[in-house]
């Protein structure tokens, strides 16, 4: 049996997202998976990372988010809500982040989950840091062996987010999450599941969306992963961490970090 952690952010259970969340949980459980749920609004998740997250720190010293996080992670003195989420992450074979696209990104409460749960020593600051090896990240790190997927509802049309769409391509908009938050600590990322033009969802569309999403969930472990380049795999020069000049010569932008 595999464990799937569903990190979910919507303030209203009777929303489209609420209905999709219930559908996902039932589908995953029917397939024999154990679902670990982090329903962030229902948990009243504290989204701001601050000194209260590290109750054992010396209050006389200036608060240093990275160093205090590292020390508390190593010494087991992080606040209990953070430690509980890290334990879910440790158990999870796959993590699904489900959210409505708000201002081109995840809702603030979910960003706050990432900021607080991704402690120094767990999600960053892992491995050797030297002029030869710039940490275990982008393809290496604590989440190696786990899969991750985004399930995102989007008010706009698919064409608004196409290659020439006014909002910019959806792959670019999701790049900071896919590459910077998931691939960075070592997750294998599969293609996002996107629900477009949410204002037009009715009973019929909802059934179609559930059918498509259900197929994605049924094949969670068979789907190809995004082929991001590994930082320490030889494609980048270290320590300047730029793509080697003979790879994708003359090109720049997010796309160069995908292996062709
Ligand atoms: P709801 O509003 O709950 O539902 C959408 C539709 O689905 C409704 O018609 C509802 O009747 C129907 N529905 C709900 N449940 C069911 C069910 N069980 N069966 C059948 N039909 C159902 N959009 C963008 O494209 N880009 C942005 O940057 C962006 N930023 C935003 C920022 C904010 C702060 C907000 C509030 C919205 C933003 N939006 C943006 C729009 C946003 O992405 C959508 O409002 C959201 O994805 C819709 O999801 P929901 O769960 O809130 O849907």
Give structural notes.
It holds the Pfam family Flavodoxin_2. Residues 3-216 form the Flavodoxin-like fold domain. Belongs to the NAD(P)H dehydrogenase (quinone) family. With 260 residues, this protein is α/β, with parallel strands linked by helices. It has a single domain, classed as 3-Layer(aba) Sandwich (Rossmann fold), CATH 3.40.50.360. Helices cover 30% and strands 13% of the residues. Strands 1, 2, 3, 4, 5 and 6 form a six-stranded parallel β-sheet that branches. Strands 7-8 form a two-stranded antiparallel ribbon. β7 and β8 (242-243) form a beta hairpin. The model has no long low-confidence stretch (mean pLDDT 97).
Quick summary of this structure?
30% of the residues lie in helices and 13% in strands. It is an alpha/beta fold.
Number of domains: 1
Overall strand count = 8
By DSSP (H or I, 4+ residues per run), the number of helices equals 6
* Overall 3D shape: globular
SS-derived structural category:
alpha/beta
Largest sheet: 6 strands, parallel
| Residue windows where pLDDT falls under 50 for at least 5 positions | none
Taking all Cα atoms into account, the compactness measure Rg is 19 Å
Small ligands present: flavin-adenine dinucleotide
- Tell me the β content: 5-15%
- CATH topology heading: Rossmann fold
CATH class: Alpha Beta
Range of helix content: 25-40%
Order of helices and strands: EHEHHEHEHEEHEE
Termini separation comes to 34 Å
* CATH architecture label name: 3-Layer(aba) Sandwich
CATH superfamily: Flavodoxin domain
GO cellular component, one term: cytosol
GO molecular function: NAD(P)H dehydrogenase (quinone) activity
Pfam family, one: Flavodoxin_2
Keywords: Oxidoreductase
């Amino acid at each position: 049996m595999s464990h799937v952690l569903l990190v979910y952010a919507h303030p209203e259970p009777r929303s489209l997202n609420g209905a999709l969340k219930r559908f996902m949980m039932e589908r995953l459980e029917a397939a024999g998976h154990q679902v670990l749920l982090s329903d962030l609004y229902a948990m009243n998740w504290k989204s701001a990372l601050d000194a209260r997250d590290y109750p054992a720190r010396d209050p006389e010293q200036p608060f240093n988010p990275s160093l205090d996080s590292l020390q508390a992670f190593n010494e087991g003195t992080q606040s209990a809500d953070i430690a509980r989420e890290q334990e879910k992450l440790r158990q999870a074979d796959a993590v699904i982040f489900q959210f409505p696209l708000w201002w081109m990104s995840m809702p603030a409460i979910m960003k706050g989950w990432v900021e607080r749960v991704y402690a120094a020593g767990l999600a960053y600051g892992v491995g050797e840091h030297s002029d030869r090896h710039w940490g275990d990240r982008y393809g290496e790190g604590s989440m190696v062996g786990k899969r991750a997927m985004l399930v995102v509802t989007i008010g706009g049309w698919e064409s608004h987010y196409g290659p020439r769409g006014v909002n910019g391509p959806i792959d670019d908009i999701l790049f900071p999450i896919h590459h910077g938050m998931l691939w960075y600590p070592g997750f294998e990322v599969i293609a996002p599941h996107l629900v477009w033009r949410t204002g037009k969802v009715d009973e019929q569309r909802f059934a179609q969306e559930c059918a498509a999403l259900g197929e994605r969930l049924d094949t969670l472990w068979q789907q190809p992963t995004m082929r991001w380049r590994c930082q320490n795999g030889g494609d980048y020069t270290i320590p300047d961490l730029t793509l080697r000049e003979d790879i994708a010569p003359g090109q720049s932008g997010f796309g160069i970090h995908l292996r062709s």
